[in-house]
Amino acid sequence: MKVSITSGRAEGPTKLNAFDNALLDANIGNVNLIKVSSILPSGTEVVPIPKFPAGDMVNCVLAYTSSDVEGDLITAVVAAATSDDFGCVVENTGVNRDLEDVKSEAKSMVQYMMDIRGLKIKEMLMADETHIVKKQGAVVAAVVYIG
Amino acid sequence: MKVSITSGRAEGPTKLNAFDNALLDANIGNVNLIKVSSILPSGTEVVPIPKFPAGDMVNCVLAYTSSDVEGDLITAVVAAATSDDFGCVVENTGVNRDLEDVKSEAKSMVQYMMDIRGLKIKEMLMADETHIVKKQGAVVAAVVYIG
Amino acid sequence: MKVSITSGRAEGPTKLNAFDNALLDANIGNVNLIKVSSILPSGTEVVPIPKFPAGDMVNCVLAYTSSDVEGDLITAVVAAATSDDFGCVVENTGVNRDLEDVKSEAKSMVQYMMDIRGLKIKEMLMADETHIVKKQGAVVAAVVYIG
């Protein structure tokens, strides 16, 4: 299994379009995303995000939040931990929360998931995105399963 | 890729059953629906909805809303735009909103998605359904990916 | 098609971790769950839950609820009905509701789904889980599609 980690942010005229624009900013706007929960198979390799054929069905763990309140600070984070065996992924989001807090919360959650499974973390990968809303903003962070 | 566009509405004794009845009314009640986001691959052909084997796993973009307030007007809409390259799909719903408003909002959202990708719309396809709630009502509209 | 029915409950330091721990308790914590709606193909066989390779993509119908209020009684139920043709599945959850009520509601909902399709129930299978929250609790019940 190969996975990519990515994130994006955008404004848009509607909530849906801001979300779509954020997906485009993250280079996953031209595929059909299927949300899954949160395990990396053994031997997962992290690679740069490929150029998917438009309309591909793509499994992903997705952190997403949006707001239409001017000045809101919105944040989306994914954290992926690998081990010599399999790995775990968490998503986390925040509105008007410090980025470092949202990231550190994601880190502890994935650390806990690994601990409880008896897995020793080899590598911790994160993607995060913040955005200060103008009119209608969205942020996404994602772990994308490539196959 | 072939897709079908469909919609349905129903009453039911519970929220879950009203939803299920609306799916049956849309001819997608006997499959396992997997929700995806919103791109039509290049060369997508729109066909009448086929008779799926019961229990098939079927990817779809789904607009769904429900209400248990007598007299509520509930609406579900999907709009799909095709081009010479790939296409885009949006879902939209409304409670006590004019059908034409919900449809026109869906149209502008998908138009915006196509514009931002530099895609010229060849065809715009919509499905919509409205229902005035008696006790527990549901409406669905869907773009179903057939494979 | 083979399916398994399972359930689990747990506490955890965060909502996400309590959910993840409940999935582990249900033996579906090490896979990527994809939520689907609710039909069992003809000839479905119910089997004990297998040991999935970590990170498998697994379709499921999932009932899930959580609470961080000490003393809350949380409940998750799935009910699956089979016939000589295909079958139906419902999920149901409750907070501070009698387990038997949540189960009996699930039973009537799946009974109704079978009736409306003209299917005669051969077997009714249920999984249920209740938990009294200490700090942050979660319960899950699931029908897992094995393939």
UniProtKB/TrEMBL annotation, chains A, B, C:
<keyword id="KW-0210">Decarboxylase</keyword>
<dbReference type="InterPro" id="IPR002724">
    <property type="entry name" value="Pyruvoyl-dep_arg_deCO2ase"/>
</dbReference>
<dbReference type="InterPro" id="IPR016104">
    <property type="entry name" value="Pyr-dep_his/arg-deCO2ase"/>
</dbReference>
<dbReference type="Pfam" id="PF01862">
    <property type="entry name" value="PvlArgDC"/>
</dbReference>
<comment type="similarity">
    <text>Belongs to the PdaD family.</text>
</comment>
<feature type="modified residue" description="Pyruvic acid (Ser)">
    <location>
        <position position="38"/>
    </location>
</feature>
<keyword id="KW-0670">Pyruvate</keyword>
<keyword id="KW-0456">Lyase</keyword>
<feature type="site" description="Cleavage (non-hydrolytic)">
    <location>
        <begin position="37"/>
        <end position="38"/>
    </location>
</feature>
<dbReference type="GO" id="GO:0008792">
    <property type="term" value="F:arginine decarboxylase activity"/>
</dbReference>
<dbReference type="GO" id="GO:0006527">
    <property type="term" value="P:L-arginine catabolic process"/>
</dbReference>
<protein>
    <recommendedName>
        <fullName>Pyruvoyl-dependent arginine decarboxylase</fullName>
        <ecNumber>4.1.1.19</ecNumber>
    </recommendedName>
</protein>
<dbReference type="InterPro" id="IPR016105">
    <property type="entry name" value="Pyr-dep_his/arg-deCO2ase_sand"/>
</dbReference>
